[in-house]
Amino acid sequence: MNTTTPLETIDLTKFSAKQLKEALNKVDAKKDNDRQAYKELVEQAVPKAIFTLCTASEMISNAKTQAFQLFEDVLKLKADAFGIKEKQQSHTFSCEGGEITIGYRVTDGWDDTVSAGIAKVEKYISSLITNESTAALVDIVFNLLKKDAKGNLKGSRVLELQKLTKKIDDVEFTDGVNIISESYKPIRSVWYIEASLIAEDGTRTPIPLSASSVDFSKGYKFEFYNESVKP
Predict the structure, then answer these.
(1) Count of structural domains, the chain
(2) Helix, strand, or coil here: 63?
(3) Which of 96, 155, 167, 203 is deepest in the core (most CB within 10 A)?
(4) What is d(CA 185, CA 155) in angstroms, rounded to the nearest whole number?
């Protein structure tokens, strides 16, 4: 509990200039000590947290590696048993009490010719604006050509453009779309693993495998933001 007397309730005329100066010096000294203590605490806390998190990261890495090794053997046996080696993006395995999916994610990528294809499509499609109907079509195409925050097209939108080539029977438009589709160079990004527990009633409970999704240890609550913080 804060028992400090509010400054506005103190009659400063009862104190000499020397006493006031000494009081202010004590306040300043305490402030300096608190700030130094804060810096020292940070210096102690950061290395401890980094060590703990590095240890946890290594444990997750080892667990992920062991899981992939297990299922690599499973997939090899499956290929031998069924006479075909499947190379799809993900594989899902399940048993009575759980389910695991392993696979890799794909990031859209394009070579430098994509800009030429986009320019060609935009040039043709802009020439179509003659009325409200064609203006709506132009908006649709331009939305498909919109880039994301990283400046890339989305691969799924190219499929929509390819469908439009069948409706818009134009050599220039089709050529532009073909340039875009041929410039598509998807990149395999990360290998992932997802796991869920399956209850008797069929309810699935995902097993959190990242620091963001996992909860705190039982009994701990980070309540700093629930407290009133005064400047």
Answers:
(1) 3
(2) helix
(3) 155
(4) 9
| 83 and 21 in a common domain | yes
Q: Are strands 187-198 and 204-206 parallel, antiparallel or unpaired?
A: antiparallel
Residues forming a β-bridge with 106: 188
Q: Please, is 82 exposed, middle or buried when counting C-beta atoms within 10 Å of its C-beta (0-12, 13-18, 19+)?
A: exposed
Host domain of residue 24: 15-87
pLDDT above 60 for 58: yes
Nearest to 108 by CA among 195, 187, 200, 193: 187
pLDDT in tens, 160-209: 888 888 888 889 889 999 999 999 988 888 898 999 999 989 899 999 88
Element containing residue 140 per DSSP (H, E): helix 132-144
- Shared domain check, 172 and 150: yes
| Residue 6 within any structural domain of the chain | no
Top-confidence residue, 76 or 222: 76
pTM of the model: 0.65
